[in-house]
Amino acid sequence: DLTFLIDLAPEAGLARATARAGKEMRFEDMGLGVQTRARNGFLALAAKYPARFRVIDGNRSEAAVAADVQATALRWLAAR
Description:
Distance between the termini: 11 Å
Strand order of the largest sheet: 1-2
Helix content: 55-70%
Strand content: 5-15%
Oligomer: single chain
Radius of gyration: 14 Å
């Protein structure tokens, strides 16, 4: 019923993900073009289904993003 889209520029997301240096195959390994297309696709879904999606600015600290997600979820739950 509610989908959070943490929006982040593909370049920033790719830099964050590669800094984690995990061993498994990830979308990050597919390059910036895939990241850009995926972001565009998710943003198109959010625009098509605005009642379902909440777009959260991911260009902030982890704590700020988490606080925004929590506040948004609590508001949504309270409206139910």
